[in-house]
Amino acid sequence: MGERRSERPPRHPIVIAQLVMFAGLAAVYIALQLFDPIPLWISAVLQIAIAMAGANLALSTVRRLYPPERRSSSDNDLISGSFATVGAVYALVLGFVIVVVWQQYTDTEATVGREANAIADLDRMARALPVDSQRQVQDAARTYLRLGVHEEWPMMARGASSTRAQAALVELWTVYTDMEAKERGSPLYERSVSRLNELGDNRRQRLNDSQQSVSPLMWVMLYVGGMITLITLCLFDAKSHDLHRFLAMTLAGMLTLALVLIGALESPFDENLPIPPEMFQAVLDNLRQLET
């Protein structure tokens, strides 16, 4: 009686179940995004879950299309070298993009702080001006801050700006350009004009930063590079299938988390990780307290 060969169970149901799980998570994420913007942490969890389910599906598909028993030792050496090269290049690109967007984000925070400090200095130095000029400067400064907090900040999430805030800035300039020669002789006049220039420069920089984003070509490179890195890992011939699956899903989750971070930092005023107008509000509250 000949030996009975053990047959491996068909893997079609497993692959189909993984495909259903991946498609279901993706459908839930798309549906939530269409109906109402979801918090960043929920979006990140869903994207990581989708990526891990996709990695699980990709590993099963690769092992079915290119099973380990068809690979030679030279194939494994080639895959190992390719993964090291692809992984190193992708890690370099990914790290570079993260550093750039983080630096831009912190620079924008610093710009907002300088803008708030400039208008606070204008208000303080205006107290040395004649009463009429002082009141005009203070009224325009408060209007600028109020419009910045309540009108311009929400508009910057869409890459727009407030024309009324711009008009308040023009009003500030008008107050100083219309001053008489005697008032311009004050030592604080030149310093005030300098602060006014800083205010305008920082506002322009802030509005420019609100329109900055990672280029579409870079996004394509990040996503395609991540998929290539993941597929190369799936080609490895690991003795433990469970360990191989864990490593692939972990890599997919980590790469997705990095991409979510880049997406949250690239637009410093949108709903993901917005820079709040707290510095503007703090200056406005302080000016109101000085009035009482």
UniProtKB/TrEMBL annotation:
Keywords: Membrane, Transmembrane, Transmembrane helix. The keyword tRNA processing does not apply. It holds the Pfam family Bestrophin-like. The chain crosses the membrane at residues 12-32, 38-59, 79-102, 217-236, 243-265. InterPro entries: DUF4239. This is DUF4239 domain-containing protein. It comes from Actinomadura rudentiformis.
